[in-house]
Amino acid sequence: MSDVPRDTDLDLDEDFDIYAFINSLPVAKEVFNSCFRQDRKKYYFSKRLLKFEVVENEKQLISLVVYDFPKLKKVEYTKTGKEIITTTLPKDFFDITFFVNTIDMIKTKVDPFQREKVIFKRFDRTLELITNELLIKETRLETGTTEETYETIIEDYKEHFKDLDKFLDWIIACRFTNNRRSSYLHFWVEAGFGKSFLSACFKECGIVTECRYEDFKSPSSLSPFELRNSWIILIDEFTIFKKEFKNLTNELIVDAKNQLRTIVDVYAKVFLSAEQSPSFEDGVDKQITDRVQQIRTETIPLEKREKYINYGNALYLQCVSRYIYLYLKKEIKKYISRGKIGADKKATKTLNEFLEEYRLNTDILDDVLYQLFYNKIFDIRNEEDFDSLSRNDQIIKREHIFERKDKTFVLHNVKKVFTLIIEQEDSNFYKKAQYKTNGIDIVLKVKKEDIQHQYKIGKGNKRGLLINPLDFYYDENAGKYKKLEMSKEDKEKFEKGELF
Asked: How does strand 184-189 pair with strand 268-273?
């Protein structure tokens, strides 16, 4: 017992060496590796149920242990002859085990390329649990459903949702790639498309977890072990792509009440909405355009399709669920046959192709802000009627634009000017743009020191960005100012009025 941490609350047999004991008895070692304590709660991982159970009392713990390891079952009797179920393990075994196996966090993974069914790894006070079974619930058709009926319904649904197979390929690729950076999909569908129907199909297969914004905060209502088997995190009635979603690329920390604090792998993230999200229009950050894809469907409502009406929701749902199950099983087999590295390579290729086809059709936010900034500055500078300007624009003209004798001008306090400009845009755009304030040098495509350089203005000095109007021209067709990208020789000709 000398190498076992002691607790003043424990009254243990000093002669009992738990490490020597478990090394001499493999089944005891398995039980030892299944018992954990986090904070003041005790947990037992059932290898038959493949989940953690909160240990409320010794009787419950004994029943869990003998369920997993029947050979440890021991029957004892009280003085009155009442039968008691115990184990053949020493009396101090569980007290010591829970004390030694104190953890702060559990990390759970499902690796279908792993040979062992369950593996535990310890890293300091973090436990990693790795299982090898991709759990998909088999869906079956009602007895008497003909092959012709099944194929008719699937053909009809594919006519309704033309991208179904590509969507399934994307989901599978998200599950097998090591880099899930582009594992976000906005499913923009018209009212009546059947979002709930599609979600129900995946629920039948047991591979989807529906979430709300609140579920990504602490405490969470999510079940870490339900998430462990989920291929899809689905967010219905989606509106705004919040910053928390960027942290969902590969993992999610779930801090749920009465459950182990757990890190789970997350795969496909699907956002459902009947309208376009403000996050995906009027300029989108490149970090988002490199992550999020968008499928838009325009079709008649599912409930108005003739085949859906004729066959009814129950049979139609059964058939589509069965198709999804069979498609996933077939593709899983192909991926696993490639091996871990080959599967990752195939999945990454599929994701890259999907991103190119379904990339968000929007302008990059930095480009939109760059154009907005210079358009505004030149419009304000060129406006002769000061009173016609908005209050913010008046402040910019009066306090931030300083003319020089060489016809260039200095824009003083660029960050403040940027804020005064974006404050005049709608609230959704402002929320996206305000995060760019500290990176305004990147937006304007200049060096950080360029916006803080000191220039002589009259008898004094001002720090700011030097702007030469000759570096820009007004494109009447586009209705905006553009920066001249020309050689030194062409620039000289332009200045002399000889270029155009």
From this structure: parallel
